[in-house]
Amino acid sequence: MTWLSFIGMFVLLSAQTEMPPGERYHMPMFFGAISIVLIAAFSFGHTKAMSAFIVLITSIGVTYNIRHIDKIDGLISPDEICVENSINELPHKSGVSSYWGAKKLSAILGVNIAQVNQHLEPARWITSEKFFTNKYYFAIQKFDDPSSINFNSMQLLNGYPDKLINCGIYKVNIYNNGLRINGGVSFSKVGSSEVYAARMLAPANHSTYQGGEITPASSFTSGNLSYGPYVKLPSGEYKVKYKFYNKSNSNVAVKVDSSTDAGKTILFSSEYSGADHVIEITGVFNMSLSHDNSPVELRTFLDGRFNVSLKSIEIERIK
Amino acid sequence: MCFFFYGFIRPEIFLNSDAIYPYSIIKSVLSDGVPILSWYPSPSPYVFPDLIGYFITYIIAFGSLKASVIIFALLQHSLYFALLNSLLKVINVKNPVLISSFTVLISLVLSTNTTIYAYSLIPVFHFGSYLASLFSLLLFKKYIERGMRKHLLLLIITTSFISYSDNIFLIWFSLPLLVVGALCYFKCKDIKYITTPLYLFLSSVCGKLASSYLFFNSQVYTYKPNLHMLSEGARKAFLDIMTTRHGFYRSLLLLLVLFLPHTITEKEKKLVG
């Protein structure tokens, strides 16, 4: 029987080698071991003596803990109380934070905090759509969290915060006029729209940000000016509007496209040539069911080195 | 309980973003009127016992976060004591009350300085599935002893629902029970030891598939048995036991696999004797 048990155990272990390497996935061994050791200990009789021995050992453990563990006052840390006080002073109580900050702070403070990743894109992971609103007024960084909001990404998108409050492991960045997140609109309803300011898009290799716009850098000759924002669009029909400034008011050649499948499927493309100061290129494209919720890229190109800068790209679901 | 709530457990255990998920979802639905379908659920739905337990906790605590955390820990440990005590009684272990009390006490004391034991205080870290395993083992033993169909039916419903809630139940309970059942069969030659675990395994697989197909983000991670058991799995298991800490933890299964067939078949052995 013992040999059979051993073989049985080995079959079980073989079947479980795909389990993730975390102690909690082996919890029954930790808790079960206590019961089994106790059953074995009490099986010898001497119940009172054994009970006294266990009480003694447990008391030693408790005494050791009291001496060696730093006591913590309350479930909410002074850092979190500081964040609470900072938010309470604000007129608008809606903000963003990372996965390890948002739900926790939202529960503690009782305010709306949406979950975003390092680049201020919505992180819809074990959270509710109700947290995602159109306006946010603060961003909370958490320094012991590797997925915390990246300050540079936040600054590129929104500029420097109006006020910064340091609360230990937290930093509260306050924007009096609101802050934007990348791709904050879900486009689940017809009529949903989003304006991607240039600072929410990415400059190509030879382009750069300048005054909140994307312009050709000194090394630019021709080609890709900007890319992104990889917004996930549900199937439907969309209107897109690209807006540029032609700063020299001379003849320029600009190309745009909207694509999915990592640029392999072009949904819409258009070209402009002329000398207008403000260049607006509009178009309509269809997201088929087979591309439902696929990331879409709204790319811009210059057919030469022109003094043209990208201001924004607007997208609206029309069907 | 009073001892450890005087600040010896890191608040991060109770209020981390994973552990606070049941509180957030129940608060948003009950107090803020948010539709439950607006939630992007956890890959394992944790409906039973975690979400149902937290629902009761939330009502008792009148929605208070601090009170919910404490009441849930109390509730979970009371359940742990009750289930362990019942199971030990059913398998005729001496001093079941003492053993259950000391098990709960020792795990509580360990929870102040060992994270794995602190998981017993919070939801969604799989302790609910451990409790469900004790409950299912209790039902299994009752069915084997009394042969009542209602026990089998309840067992099938329970295992499928718990596997749906947390896929790890399949690995922790249904799969080991197949092996334990086979060992019991060799001892008692009763076909129930083979057929019952097989029914439960199949109902667990159905539960697991339900969570994979009903929740869009469940494909991110699931627990699956290694299907190449006799080749790659055996080699990995051997290397794990010999070289890794987690392999050592898993090898503690030996204790359970040696212990359970002897206790489960105890009555039959006496009858045969």
Structural description of this entry:
The complex is a heterodimer of chains A (319) and B (273). Chain A is α+β, with helices and mostly antiparallel strands and 319 residues long. Chain A has three domains: 40 residues; 102 residues, no CATH class; 125 residues, Galactose-binding domain-like (Jelly Rolls, Sandwich). Chain A is 26% helix and 36% strand. With 273 residues, chain B is an all-alpha fold. Chain B is built from 14 helices and no strands. Chain B is globular and about 55 Å long. Chain B starts with 10 loop residues before the first helix and ends with a helix. About 2% of the residues of chain B have low confidence.
The two chains with the largest interface, and their residue counts, are:
A-B, 69 and 97 residues
- Name the helix and strand elements of chain B from N-terminus to C-terminus, one letter apiece: HHHHHHHHHHHHHH
Structural class of chain B: mainly alpha
Largest sheet of chain A: 6 strands, antiparallel
State the end-to-end CA separation of chain B: 45 Å
Unreliable runs of chain B, pLDDT <50, ≥5 residues? Answer: 216-221
Oligomer classification: heterodimer
Please provide a brief summary of the model.
The complex is a heterodimer of chains A (319) and B (273). Chain A has 319 residues and is of the alpha+beta class.
What is the element layout, followed by pairings?
The complex is a heterodimer of chains A (319) and B (273).
Chain A (H helix, E strand, L loop, with lengths): L1 H14 L11 H16 L4 H22 L9 H11 L5 E4 L1 H11 L2 E4 L20 E7 L8 H8 L4 E5 L2 E10 L13 E5 L4 E2 L3 E4 L2 E4 L6 E5 L1 E5 L2 E11 L5 E9 L4 E10 L3 E10 L6 E9 L5 E10 L2
Parallel strand pairs in A: 1-2, 1-3
Antiparallel strand pairs in A: 3-5, 4-5, 6-17, 7-10, 8-9, 10-16, 11-16, 12-15, 12-17, 13-14, 13-16
Chain B lengths: L10 H4 L6 H10 L16 H14 L4 H26 L5 H15 L4 H4 L8 H20 L2 H17 L2 H21 L3 H23 L14 H15 L1 H7 L1 H12 L1 H7 L1
Helix pairs in contact in B: 2-3, 3-4, 4-5, 4-7, 7-8, 7-9, 8-10, 9-10, 9-13, 11-12
